[in-house]
Amino acid sequence: MNRPCAYAFLVAAAAALVSACSITRPTPVKQMFLLEPPPAAAVASTSPLTARIGTVTVAAPYRDRVFVVREADLRFESDFYHEWVVAPAPMIAEAVARSLAQARAFSRVIPPGAPPEAELTIDAFVGELYTDNRDPKSPAAVLSLTVYVSRTDRMAAPVWSKTYARRTVLSTVSAPNYAAAQSASMGEILAELARDLAAERSLR
Fold it and tell me: Looking at the whole model, is its pTM more than 0.90?
């Protein structure tokens, strides 16, 4: 076999090998998950006031849809093959509104995006939303949420605020386990929030 023919044969063989690999190894497909806390139980007493869900802000490293993994104290990585269905901010805002309505913490809960026709405005800041893999033997889903309640008719500092945090150890590191753990953590936080708001005398 002369040199040109041999070269052409090698190129054809390489192309066939690549084609075979593409058939046996399909291109990875992104998987999408929803942060969906379980329904909240009704609180002992309902505030007579109406509350509107205002702005939910997410810390910069976690505000995109892709999952975030913390590999070291100062090193974070994005998992581009696993992401939330929508960005965390609107997803969490809707979850807060739905949970407080289910818990009957207020006489009426107005969802985000509605006109400010309420006596109270509830804003929130998500400071942490990631998988902590710094210790491979004890990976965990980390979530923190700070809630601020203000009087809608007053341009002043919030009348009430509190930070909630959860760290849930994962049996195995996987996207479904992570999404399930964060959903459960958010459910616990929102249930505690509803109880706190219902018991706060300044919000009545």
Answer: no
